[in-house]
Design a protein that fits this description.
The complex is a heterodimer of chains A (277) and B (277). Chain A has 277 residues and is mainly alpha-helical. The longest helix of chain A has 35 residues. The two termini of chain A are 27 Å apart. With 277 residues, chain B is mainly alpha-helical. In chain B, helix 3 runs antiparallel to helix 10, helix 10 runs antiparallel to helix 13 and helix 12 runs antiparallel to helix 13. Chain B is globular. The two termini of chain B are 36 Å apart. The chains are: A mainly alpha (277), B mainly alpha (277). Chains A and B meet through helix 1, helix 3, strand 1, helix 4 and helix 5 of A and strand 1, helix 1, helix 3, helix 4 and helix 5 of B. Strand 1 of chain A pairs antiparallel with strand 1 of chain B.
């Protein structure tokens, strides 16, 4: 590398300074604010807000919606990745585009489309009522909206890895008579393990924090269709700032956990790729 | 769907079937319902809804704040990516991990934290209030929230390009006597422009639809700090589904155009990269 001159050193530390200032102001300070505001009135108030019945119910609903979104998107992601990378067929490009579509849709619109599909003004609404199925302003709607906003998160991580690897090993195994699921379990999955986990983490992160889409479809029934982010909103709008930040601190904790998991997965994945280029 | 090239690998029917089924239920049918719903309306009705003063000004606020925030992110994103790739300094890995925070932190949590920070009584807002500058509940506040949301898009788009950039070119230019600033503007800068543009486009698309972090900090004053997702939400709360859906459709088209342009830049970008290799 060329010599480090005095001026280039100044530039270096100036740019580092600007970056650190940005990260501290924009990213670190909001995190610290959540924690300090949550404990503003002492630990007892914090504990009361966190163990409040509505908070606990919201926590379990968030967990339920997140888990279901991860499961459905896993089934979808693995199927789509297999179908799109192992076979050639017409319409493949369109299919790929359609899968990516949900991330470009505003969360509010994501909620709106489920309201239109299953709500009162939908042609199938009388049918749903006859069967006594509630989707809008109920848990199924929340789950559907959550699946929508995280839709491509897992397939998007798997497809590039499978494409880069090619299909030689799978073809050989198939020619030797291995069954489809055996091929997947023994040959394909070990290679996409880290990418898959990475996708799951991203999916879980977005699912637990989804606000706009869920906000449209939930109906905000406390204790019934209120997720943690929605509960934060209700408390904040009622000027109950300390409880709002206390509930938010649960989500901060989950977010930090997700960031650590993400770095570990990325690190392990990179290490593995270096061992077998 | 017809396979154009038979493969020995099993599972085409099953995986493609699952993919299409889930895609239809979660994405295609709900999105189609948006189009079906607006198809009932005449063109005059649609134009009348869109050209209402309040709706037009919300589009202006949305586009201006998203554009300014993405511009700030494009500059800061390149600086951050540069610092993270080219320099080593203490706590670098931590800062690298922090960049991902906006993906992991629920938008509602970011929203209330940024609102508290930038309100006149907050740490940052109090400082600016001394100079008579208001952040929270103004368009500046919306921009701050959108900068938070958009920053990882640019950093993660530029970082891999900088990592792959062969230092041999920079070294060669240095040996031939080019100054550091000249090396940067003539060699490095042209390489990172397409990546920065991609990041800008992705951030812009996300910012246009953002709701959770903005709803708290915006203050939601009509004609001033009301963004498009907010107006859709308030139409829904007034059970004016027709207006909400019409505005949503225009919004959807805007984000698809953004996505299309980003893809265009990306394809050109990869073509250049492949051609140059």
């Amino acid at each position: 590398m060329y010599k480090e001159t005095k001026s280039s050193k100044a530039v270096k530390w100036f740019l580092i300074g600007v970056s650190v200032l940005f990260v501290v102001l924009m990213l670190l300070l909001p995190l610290i604010t959540v924690i300090t505001e949550a404990f503003k009135q002492g630990f007892a108030v914090y504990e009361k807000a966190v163990t409040d019945n509505y908070t606990v119910k919201a926590f379990w609903l968030t967990l339920e919606a997140t888990a279901l979104a991860v499961v459905i998107n896993t089934v979808f992601g693995l199927s789509a990745a297999w179908s799109l990378t192992k076979f050639h067929f017409r319409g493949k490009k369109i299919l790929t585009t359609l899968i990516d579509l949900p991330v470009t849709v505003s969360p509010i619109i994501a909620g709106l489309i489920f309201l239109l599909t299953f709500g009162r003004q939908s042609p199938i609404f009388p049918l749903l009522q006859d069967w006594d199925v509630k989707i809008v302003f109920a848990v199924p709607g929340i789950v559907l909206a959550t699946i929508f906003v995280t839709f491509p998160f897992i397939s998007r991580e798997l497809i590039p890895v499978l494409e880069a690897r090619g299909n030689d090993e799978e073809e050989a195994a198939a020619l030797m008579g291995a069954k489809g699921f055996t091929i997947f379990r023994k040959i394909t999955f070990p290679h996409i393990k880290w990418a898959f986990l990475y996708g799951v983490v991203l999916c879980a992160a977005r699912a637990m924090g989804e606000f706009g889409a869920v906000s449209v479809i939930s109906g905000h029934l406390r204790g019934k269709t209120n997720t943690l982010p929605l509960h934060v909103e209700i408390l904040f709008n009622e000027f109950q700032y300390v409880p709002a930040f206390a509930v938010a601190s649960i989500l901060v904790l989950l977010a930090i956990f997700i960031l650590i998991a993400r770095s570990l997965i990325e690190y392990n994945g990179k290490k593995k790729n270096k061992v077998e280029p | 769907m017809k396979r154009t090239n038979r493969s020995v690998i099993p599972g085409f029917g099953l995986t493609t079937g699952i993919t299409l089924a889930i895609l239809s239920i979660v994405v295609l049918i709900p999105l189609a319902s948006l189009v079906v719903f607006t198809a009932h309306m005449s063109l005059d009705e649609i134009v009348a809804t869109i050209t209402r003063d309040r709706v037009l000004s919300s589009f202006r606020v949305s586009f201006v704040t998203a554009f300014v925030a993405s511009l700030i992110n494009a500059v800061m994103g390149v600086v951050l990516a540069w610092v993270l790739v080219k320099y080593s300094f203490p706590l670098k890995r931590l800062i690298d991990g922090m960049i991902e925070l906006p993906f992991a932190l629920p938008t509602a949590v970011a929203g209330i934290a940024l609102t508290t920070l930038t309100a006149d009584t907050g740490l940052v807002g109090g400082f600016f209030a001394k100079f008579g500058v208001k952040i929270a509940f103004t368009q500046a506040g919306i921009t701050v929230a959108l900068v938070f949301i958009g920053i990882p898009f640019v950093v993660r788009a530029v970082q891999p390009v900088l990592e792959k950039l062969d230092p041999a070119y920079e070294e060669a230019a240095g040996v031939l006597g080019a100054s550091r600033s000249r090396i940067f503007w003539k060699i490095v800068f042209p390489e990172i422009v397409p990546a920065a543009l991609t990041g800008f486009g992705l951030a812009f698309g996300r910012c246009l639809g953002e709701y959770g972090s903005v709803v708290f900090i915006a203050g939601n004053k009509p004609f001033e700090t009301e963004i498009v997702p907010l107006i859709i939400m308030s139409e829904l709360q007034e059970y004016d589904y027709a207006s909400a859906t019409t505005i949503a459709l225009v919004m959807l088209v805007a984000s698809f155009v953004t996505l299309f342009l980003v893809n265009l830049i990306q394809t050109r970008n990869t073509r250049i990269l492949k051609g140059g290799a």
